[in-house]
Amino acid sequence: MFAKRPFSEGEIVEISPALVLKTEFDALPELLKSYAFNWTALTGAPGRQALILGYGSMYNHDNPANLRYTADAREGVMLYIADRPIKADEELTINYCSSGGLPVSEDDAWFEQLGIDLIKKRE
């Protein structure tokens, strides 16, 4: 996903509907585990995972990412917010490994949990 226009830091880039599932992560079918967001961690609602619809499910990983995300349990949506100024045609990214939708993480726990070999960017 790439920005069609520039975004300012703090600007909402997208509001995506969330399909909230009443299940623990381990109970999800294997196919869904790499797509589900931990709705419990994001909202405090116990035993919930969410599949994010719209473009929200298509953002690639980066560390640091240029977007952060936050869940709105009342509205049942995920908000993607520019964490820094983003230029037109720049790839929009989230951090798959961060806690609570932050743009930076210290490890690759999400990839390790799912047994995915992370391809590192060349500097």
Which helices and strands appear, and what pairs or packs with what?
Layout: E1 12-22, H1 30-33, E2 36-37, H2 39-43, E3 48-52, E4 60-61, E5 67-72, E6 77-82, E7 93-94, H3 109-113
Parallel strand pairs: 4-7
Antiparallel strand pairs: 1-3, 1-6, 2-3, 5-6
Write a concise synopsis of the structure shown.
By secondary structure, this protein is of the alpha+beta class. It has helices spanning 30-33, 39-43, 109-113; strands at 12-22, 36-37, 48-52, 60-61, 67-72, 77-82, 93-94.
Notes on the structure:
- The chain is 11% helix and 28% strand.
- With 123 residues, the chain is α+β, with helices and mostly antiparallel strands.
- Strands 2-3-1-6-5 form a five-stranded antiparallel β-sheet. Strands 4-7 form a two-stranded parallel ribbon.
- Strand 5 and strand 6 (77-82) form a beta hairpin.
- The longest helix has 5 residues, at 39-43.
- The chain is globular, with a radius of gyration of 14 Å.
- The model has no long low-confidence stretch (mean pLDDT 89).
